[in-house]
């Protein structure tokens, strides 16, 4: 997963993910890594050696992506809501 918003927003979401990384890894596996990437982006990723990218591998990859999205997307949504509340409070 790539965080590709502004660098500041990416950092805030990444900080929130980092605070929950132990829980995320407990649910999805220890092979996940969260790190800065290109252009101020952040990525949460895992890698696997792939010798053949056949229909079976495509299905496994799609299933894994669905698992990741199911756990991480709700966390990101909550972090965005929290971020919006913080920005509104700062303006008041």
Which characteristics define this entry?
3 strands, 3 helices, about 90 residues, mainly alpha
What does the model show?
With 92 residues, this protein is mainly α. It has one domain. It is 63% helix and 11% strand. The chain contains 3 helices and 3 strands. It has helices at 7-19, 21-28, 55-91; strands at 2-3, 33-36, 42-45. It has a 3-stranded antiparallel beta sheet, with helices on one face. The longest helix has 37 residues, at 55-91. The termini are far apart. 8% of the residues are buried.
pLDDT average, as an integer?
86
Please give the alpha-carbon distance between the first and last residues.
34 Å
Helix content: 55-70%
Element order: H for helix, E for strand: EHHEEH
Helix segment tally = 3
How much of the sequence lies in strands comes to: 5-15%
- How much is the radius of gyration in Å? 15 Å
Total strands: the figure is: 3
Query: What spatial form do the alpha-carbon principal axes imply?
Result: globular
Number of domains: 1
Described by strand count, sense and barrel closure, the largest sheet is:
3 strands, antiparallel
Order of strands, widest sheet: 1-3-2
Low-confidence stretches: none
Overall structural class, as computed from helix and strand content, comes to mainly alpha
């Amino acid at each position: 997963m790539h965080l590709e918003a502004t660098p500041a927003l990416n950092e805030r979401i990444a900080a929130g993910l980092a605070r929950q990384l132990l829980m995320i890894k407990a649910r999805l596996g220890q092979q996940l890594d969260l790190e800065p990437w290109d252009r101020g982006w952040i990525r949460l990723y895992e890698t696997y050696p792939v010798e053949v990218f056949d229909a079976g591998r495509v299905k496994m990859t799609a299933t894994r992506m669905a698992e990741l999205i199911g756990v991480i997307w709700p966390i990101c949504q909550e972090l965005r809501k929290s971020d919006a509340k913080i920005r509104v409070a700062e303006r008041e």
